[in-house]
User: Fold these one by one.
Assistant:
Number 1:
Amino acid sequence: MKIAVVGTGYVGLVAGACLAENGNDVVCVDKDPAKVRALQRGRIPIYEPGLEELVRRNRTEKRLTFTTALERGVRNSQIIFIAVGTPTGEDGSADLQHVLAVARDTARAMNGYKVIVNKSTVPVGTAVKVREVVRRETTHPFSVVSNPEFLKQGAAIDDFMKPDRVVIGAEDPRGAEIMKELYAPFTRTGAPIMLMDCASAELCKYAANAMLATRISFMNEVANLCEATGANVDQVRRAVASDRRIGASFLFPGVGYGGSCFPKDVKAMVRFAAEKDYQFAILEAVEGVNDRQKLRLLSKMQSHFGSLKGKRIAVWGLAFKPRTDDMREAPSVPLIHGILAAGASVTAYDPEAIPIARGIFGSKITYAESSYAALKGADALAIVTEWNTFREPDFERIKKLLSQPLIFDGRNLYNPEQLRAHGFTYFSIGRP
Ligand SMILES: NC(=O)c1ccc[n+]([C@@H]2O[C@H](COP(=O)([O-])OP(=O)(O)OC[C@H]3O[C@@H](n4cnc5c(N)ncnc54)[C@H](O)[C@@H]3O)[C@@H](O)[C@H]2O)c1
């Protein structure tokens, strides 16, 4: 099939490359000329495992191209995916300006029947708005489809190629049939294609993310209660997770959730519920708990040191999670700002995110070339992202490099008893 994917970020680039891999002709459109130029030269603007190779193969075989020219992309395609950002607007709602701009420009470029597929995460009612915008601009026939994306950064290609489910919200059978055909190769292993109305398709993406965010905030509160009562969250989590009705995913306490999706989607869901006079009380609490949790390591440092003035803290991990360089809403950001505001300095290391971090902190912090280099002379190590390379470090080397053997572990990577046996003062989340 001939496909245009508009918006070549995490979602658009992965979707475009994976659709090309299955034999489709895909043109990825982005309004950012620098990004498009880089992609045309084979440079991938984000870090996502396996993506570079996938893009290279499909470019070489001429199934995947990149352009800023939306009009040409639309005219040559039957299916147009909208995969642009839907950032948080001033009042917490999802800002739809990019989605609606692409819908309008797509409509103006149409030269026949098109399926306009919304892949961005958008509030209920957006398909209706997209349809109105398109109808105003063209007399050509079209179908509007909602096809929310559930991929996880860090495992995005696998998630797209082998999805748990494909959700297709469609209001007419023509659009639904084309989408079913497009996704058939991705669902051969038995994952269901779930056909539904557009409003339900739009809502299920928010409900899924909000549920995952709720599990994280819930477990962070359980961990905080463990600290207050002397219980151990490792034991509590294992017992809770072994209940088959509950399961083990997304129950690890830590420094709070971040990234480009959970924070913004929780906010947007609270907001569009409020617009319908519904107070989504659980999600309001989920957000408040998460904001507090992001500063949990800072309060542990403050209670340990009394004052942070003049201290130097080594920070391991800046990305909001491992296997990505994305720092949007990363817990490392408020934590580092908090440490700096308390009068301490920061030396940070991350395997992938340092170029992004430079854009956020500039020269306010120093950047280390390696995890160990960050430690030299620091008063403590704070662990913020659970990269695999941090899991089995050389503790004797850490001890020699730090000015005192002190670790604040926001990801519960180590065994507290073993660390104490190594001579460390060790603080983690929810464990004695
Ligand atoms: N990142 C994720 O893990 C993820 C997962 C599922 C769903 N989503 C949703 O998918 C959407 C996109 O997310 P993302 O992380 O890929 O965003 P992103 O910010 O990485 O990429 C968006 C891209 O769209 C481009 N763009 C904006 N307006 C444009 C226009 N008018 N014409 C052409 N290009 C335009 C931008 O230049 C940018 O390259 C969001 O709604 C997000 O919530 C994201």
Note: Residues 198-229 form the longest helix (32 residues).
Number 2:
Amino acid sequence: MPLVSMRQLLDEAARGGYGVGAFNVNNMEQIQAIMEAARETKSPVIVQASRGARSYSQDRFLYHLMLAATELYPEIPTVLHLDHGNSVDTCKSAIAMGFTSVMMDGSLMPDGKTPSTFDHNVKATREVVEMAHAKGITVEGEIGCLGGIEDGHGAGLDGLSHLTDPDQAVEFVQQTGVDALAIAIGTSHGAYKFTKKPTGETLKMDRLIEIHKRLPHTHLVMHGSSSVPKDLQDVINKYGGKLKPTWGVPVEEIQLGIKNGVRKINVDTDNRLAITGAIRKVFAEKPEEFDPRSYLKPARDAMKKVVALRMMQFGQAGHAGDYAPITLAEMANRYEGNRVPVVP
Ligand SMILES: [Zn+2]
């Protein structure tokens, strides 16, 4: 099947009461790891690329790798999503390239660093929604600012500096018509999210629950939601790495989020850790190896394991065959006729 609408995946997830992991990619091995995990667990899947990934891979390579994924895994509903679009133009170019979902992150100015105003955010996001929905493409917005910096994107502040205000969230959704909303509840991008296991003081799940109560029909998105498990950190450090002690978002907190409206969970760091640990292990144990496959294959396997585990933990496993994906043209009709959500 062709790449599909993210809106439909999230509507179905809401109906089924589960979450869908959105995994970042830059290359073929990462795409293969995700698709293999999706097949093994029978999961619908969101593959996402940041601006950094688009420039690293050159859009065209990435897009054709994703087409190969849809040919080779026809039973898996697969979304190609733009992570953190910084401007209307970036979203426009992603849609032209064939992405079926885009994030317009107007919480920051187009420099991707400076926190913006509410008005800037609404205006840019609204413009993307109009352009995208006319083509059946899904839009994710963000209100409040995530912590940290990833791929040069982020205000570089800690996760608690710009938490999402529930009143603003309601106003933002009403004024923009976004399909999904990323909220800031204390999480950060990158490996160093928390200096100890997060508590209600540092990870504001109560804020998320409040926003869900106010916006029960909006799909919430948790960014910066790698769990950064100790065993993955340990492999890296055992084989010569130097990661400082760090904590991510515990899976049980994500599962609490899923019970409270979270439908998309962004995971990147855990996969990076798995890949790096596997490669370090080969380099340390077999220094005579020089065929890239000798370390890329274990790296791909290690990432697949993490993705498959998250798919089971988020609840998307087993749901790949639940529904027949609608075409983007049909999605455009439905937006036009106000017949969204797909699953009422
Ligand atoms: Zn993010």
Note: DSSP finds 13 helices and eight strands in the chain.
Number 3:
Amino acid sequence: MTQAFDKLVALLDYPMFVVTTRRGDEPAGCLVGFASQVSIHPARFLAGLSKRNHTYRVADGASHLAVHLIERRHCELARLFGGETGDEVDKFARCAWHSGPHGLPILDDAAGWFAGAVLSRYDLGDHVGFLLEPLTGNAPDGFEQLVTFSDVCDLDPGHEA
Ligand SMILES: Cc1cc2nc3c(=O)[nH]c(=O)nc-3n(C[C@H](O)[C@H](O)[C@H](O)COP(=O)(O)O)c2cc1C
């Protein structure tokens, strides 16, 4: 059964997100595939952060997260956030960003983003689910091709899950 599940999910080509947050002066962010809207009324979104990630440790003490969608022409941005860890490099020195709502780091080259309040955290196994209430953001009229799993599945993650 596990084999079938592993095979099935490996065939999916879901959109990738960059999730950022900040605790005090410390910004953090990583590439996230385990993320989805989970309710319409009220609007809710769940983002899964690996317990090993620098981003998780910062998010553990944060009240808000920002969720970004990245177009394929900016795939390098997604690769930066998935291939490097904030434990070793300052990813935010390598990309353009500004301070947004609640002091959240907002990536200038994102195609769209929203900021959400962390309502609760769920221990899911090797990841923790952050349940978000979307508060504000920026949405274009449409997207070009977004970065999806197949664009980044060759990447060596900054941290193993
Ligand atoms: C295809 C792919 C999917 C990933 N999905 C997630 C995810 O859903 N949640 C997560 O926390 N990390 C995920 N990662 C791993 C992190 O993005 C990666 O380990 C990152 O370097 C961690 O950075 P940090 O230590 O600065 O937080 C994924 C990486 C790749 C390549």
Note: The chain has four helices and nine strands.
